[in-house]
Amino acid sequence: xxxxxxxxxxxxxxxxxxxxxxxxxxxxxxxxxxxxxxxxxxxxxxxxxxxxxxxxxxxxxxxxxxxxxxxxxxxxxxxxxxxxxxxxxxxxxxxxxxxxxxxxxxxxxxxxxxxxxxxxxxxxxxxxxxxxxxxxxxxxxxxxxxxxxxxxxxxxxxxxxxxxxxxxxxxxxxxxxxxxxxxxxxxxxxxxxxxxxxxxxxxxxxxxxxxxxxxxxxxxxxxxxxxxxxxxxxxxxxxxxxxxxxxxxxxxxxxxxxxxxxxxxxxxxxxxxxxxxxxxxxxxxxxxxxxxxxxxxxxxxxxxxxxxxxxxxxxx
Length: 316
What we know:
Blueprint: E1 10-17, E2 20-34, E3 39-45, E4 49-54, E5 57-61, H1 65-80, E6 85-90, H2 95-100, E7 108-113, H3 116-125, H4 127-130, E8 139-143, H5 146-152, E9 157-163, H6 179-188, E10 189-201, H7 207-218, E11 223-231, E12 236-244, H8 254-264, H9 274-280, H10 285-293, E13 310-314
Parallel strand pairs: 6-7, 6-9, 7-8, 9-10
Antiparallel strand pairs: 1-2, 1-13, 2-3, 3-4, 4-5, 10-12, 11-12
Helix pairs in contact: 7-10, 8-9
């Protein structure tokens, strides 16, 4: 508005489409790394506290990361009902581990992230997000290519949760959004195992990416369902895809979900309950129609290529 007091010293500018961009004001850069795989910033933002950015794209922030991480972790675990072994792909901040650890029956968590420098920076500078989760004896952190780990593991998993950076072609994660990858994930799941991935923002011009990812997952898993939640620091809804080789309901009973959460977890949720889960799975009609009409499947020869990168610049 006219006369507003602009207090940011630096601006993260993330280009969403050829016509739209996002800007977050930062007051301090806490860390910068140009790693073997990506550019990493950890910043202090004016509205959302500490935040992680990879390749110029906003990943998560201290104030509202619970929306994304509770939405990513708990739907597949509620559907499963009694997870014992959970594999996390990516997840550098440790917040995904934190949420899985709420499930009292979980015996083993493996987090596989390709970029050890980012993981170490998050351990040091983002304790608000991981809350000591890396130190839990049930957790094993492996610094490696997630696809390599999946190719070689002989274990079976009750849930595989894909918490990866965006599939930028020059980044480390684009191959993990393809049919070949999802085929390997299906192979390592238990018979009633669940797969969950974030599948892009539901921005009008980017809806095609969610539809194509959903169609790609559906080409491997007989049961797949879109889901969504609102994340304030993105300013738009985020999408997920939950999938399994076993049928599950897209309209779960909220009372039954609440019973599972009360009996199986330590609680402490800020966003998730039975009504929230039901709401997440009720994706609007125009998105459902787009998914139903989609025919393209992402493969290693034709992976997703999201538009745009971001930049961090000092105020002029």
